Amino acid sequence: MRPLQSPLQARQLSEYVCNNCTRQLRRQRRRYATTTLTTSSNPDIYDVVCVGGGPAGLSLLAALRSNPATSRLKIALVESQSLTPIRSFSLPPTQFSNRCSSLTPSSVRFLQSIGAWKFVKRERVQAYREMRVWDGVSGASIDFDTAALGPGGKDGVIAYMNENLNLTSALLQRIDELGGVDVLDGQKVADIRLGEEGEDVDLSSWPVVKVSGGREITARLLVGADGANSPVRAFAGIQSRGWDYERHGVVATLKMEGPGWGGEDHKIAYQRFLPTGPIAMLPLPGSYSTLVWSTTPELAAKLKSLNEQDFVSMVNAGLRLSPTDLKYLHSMPEGQTDEATWREQHTPFETNKIPQRVVGVQEGTIASFPLKFRHADTYIGERIALVGDAAHTVHPLAGQGLNQGQGDVESLAKTIEYSVTHGQDIGVQLSLEAYNAERYAQNNLLMGVMDKLHKLYAVESGPVVALRSLGLRAVDGLGPLKGFFMKQAAGTGVKVF
Questions:
Q1: pLDDT tens, 59-102?
Q2: For the whole model, what pTM was predicted?
Q3: Which residues form the FAD-binding domain (predicted)?
Q4: d(Cα 221, Cα 212) in Å, to the nearest integer?
Q5: I need a surface site. Which of 8, 47, 80, 433 has the fewest CB within 10 A?
Q6: Is the domain defined by 101-166+245-368+456-490 classed in CATH 3.30.200.20?
Q7: Are 388 and 55 in contact (CB under 8 A)?
Q8: In what order do the strands lie in the sheet with 159-163?
Q9: What sign does the CA torsion over 390, 396, 398, 399 have?
């Protein structure tokens, strides 16, 4: 039997191990420094390559370029569409894009910190300070206002409604102001493969992106901000699991009777849960609102086929009439306006508890898109990071999709900053683990809640209706509990870790 080590031998072995680890760390840092010099001198090797020029991808690039610690990284953006029209985004004050998002105060603070919010056209942004949610079957409701946020409710705003194009245009302007980003727009990803081992540096673990123009660029860290069908995620072999909701989201820009019951200074958002899906009316500047109506594919197709007058009548009915009435109106081939008017005359409802009436719809804004639940198994791989829809896709009933992406970007940017300031390789999986640990748990929790809410309110009858109505009224009556839910939705609540 081998004799036990003496205390002296144990100490000598410990010193050997520690010294050996120190030497390996020094070699790794020298290798990192050498590779950094290589990326600076080789036009086709980058520290960060981001695929996808949406809000998540552009926010990441602006965050990296605006931070002194990461501003010297060599960065490239690959985007399949031309970004020139987005840079010059401009619409008359009476027209709004139909793709809008509700930005939480937390997301706005992040955009301010990276210098992008100053480029957002503020006259096209609408803050709202109250939100009313109610059950379309039982009538049980809950009213959220900024008083429930307590001292943390800065500026008295629940969220800011903003066109996605307004945000992406602002981010592009900020990136142009900062400079230092090689933009390959109008070029699709043709292929992604691993690099090769050379004489000076081993790039065999580095992704090489080939774009449709024929150019190949190598990335120390490849970021997938390229949507639900992410080529970057596919290259990394990361599975994205979930299901289709068999629902479509119908969107449109609506003209209202007026600026709302509270006027310009107190805008209110509304959401009514129907068995086929929630219908939401979210305020825009002036007398305009954006519609998001989640419903079955068949009913979505029916809504899009209606003339403007009947479409407007159906939206008004969706916020006023019973599910039984709506079902009948959907079955009519045309002429919903007269039928809805007659039924509304025989339906009691509190006028000031629902939105003002819709009087028109902006031409060309009625559209729909399928709703899905998808969550990647992980957000990272070796020299790979996923953000936004490439990592997760959630039901829009709480308007958290874009905000989740901004949270991803803020966390990833901080993770990269830590690696740079501590002499670590930004692309290795060990360096990226902090980002994955922080964001995966938080997103998974929120996505699970949204999914359960959708399924809960899809039930049209039975004891579930009574129980969910009881729960809704209970939350409405408990100020601290309501404040907790609001803080989570606004991004100001406590973190999972």
A1: 999 999 999 999 999 999 999 999 999 998 999 999 999 999 99
A2: 0.86
A3: 46-441
A4: 20
A5: 8
A6: no
A7: yes
A8: 100-103, 159-163, 126-128
A9: positive
